[in-house]
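Before the break, one more example. Copy the sequence into your notebook; we will annotate it together after we see the structure.
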Amino acid sequence: MTTVRITRTALTRGTLAALSGLLAGFAALTVAELVSTAVRPEASPVTAVGGAAIDRTPAGVKDWAIRNFGENDKFVLQLGIVVTLALFAVAVGLLALRHRRTGSAAVLAFGVVGAASAVSRPDSTGVVDGLPSLAGTAAGAILLYVLVGTLTRPRRIAGEESAGEEQDDEGGWDRRGFLIAATAAAAASTAAGAVGRTLNGRSAQDAVASREAVTLPTPASPARPTPAGAQLRVPGLPPFTTPNDKFYRVDTALVIPKVDANSWRLRIHGEGVRQDLEFTYQDLLNRPLIEREITLCCVSNEVGGPYIGHARWIGVRLADLLKEAGVKPPSRGGKADQIIARSVDGMTLGTPVEDVMDGRDAMLAVGMNGEPLPFVNGFPVRMLVPGLYGYVSACKWIEDIELTTFDTYDAYWVKREWAREAPIKTQSRIDTPKPFGRPEAGTVMVAGVAWAQHRGIEKVEIRVDDGPWRPAQLAEQDTVDTWRQWSYPWKATPGGHTLTVRATDRTGEVQTEKRTKTVPDGASGWHSVVVTVD
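Here is what the structure looks like once it is written out:
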């Protein structure tokens, strides 16, 4: 009986030790959240460690994550971090039951990792970014030491004191002390987390208010009306203009920056700049604005993938700002051949100066589809360069433009195996019928989109199985910077079939059949779908 009782007690103490580790981990995170309000929200350990993990992840792994998890890749990463922390906390709790000081020291060690991650981030403001992680784990280590102390503290049992008997570590522990300490810790940690989230939320409220107060001026150079024939009436086709809330998102930000437009500033400086310039948000709104239809595409878009969208953008011509700063393109003797655009979260994108100043509608956008940029799409200001993949042109939350050379500086993605320059490849996609669809025999409308920004689409062709290429019917082209819808009435016969599409741009370049991965400069190949006709 004594052996059974001791075994059950040991099992209970082990379970409570694991719970102690979880409570210590929870306290560490919530205290860190509270302390981050005095530093900045991005310095919290989960965000800092997650961001550091993203920075150190090989390009192929990132591409795999985007391909398999899509826009949920950041949620999966954060969930993985939380699960890992929970398992670590359980292990530390069990360790502390046997080695109390060592377990508490392990919590502190994780704080050092979190602090190092925060300080090493591209947007770090210095060593102060490490304070939330250090303060949080200090609180967690102290709590673990206290909680485990109640599980290892011997106590005398009533009725046995006269015999001088005392429970050993297996049989005696302070149940009441553990319950009081654990309950108090859970309550205090929950309160700390709630206060931290509230205070961090207040800084975001100023940004939200600044966006709500924006009234976009009438552009001095408005876009022409979208041609009525640009949108085909074929079920299954995406709308020509992508709604803001449906626009794709691919970036490295675990926390979407909430920037107050009233305090936002943009600096232009660097090689070949005659005079450094600084602009406020209102400065940009006061300038002559252009409005343009531009389709954006992510370099992580697989053949037939979803990471492409179209919008009507309002902004300031970037070339005009560069000219005011005295910048010349290399073709005219300019010293700089690369623009480094920096985001408020430390992201850097490198763009050829020549492309920005060759007459295309490169802009610093302030509006999207008739409203101020949504936060997720870069409010208050983002950069756009038609014809280039986003990773070399579409800097969101931009705050700095530095003129330099490709030989001098490698931007974020270039350091991670991606190409320095990346014009968008001529591509096409079948949107309907869907892969493995079962249309009925007869006339089946095959339809989709094709794109070759800054060159335009000249022709789209469809092939059924191994048959000849047939011309598709093209929707009206809006501009060379937009995608183009197409359709093909297919006389479908029963059985399995493979439908393949290819496009030709206005330079005469035919979409290549050769399949390549997204790394280093975008995927290529023909898109096909397999269907079974009933």
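The two ends are 72 Å apart (CA to CA). The first helix runs from residue 2 to 39. Try to locate both features in your own notes.
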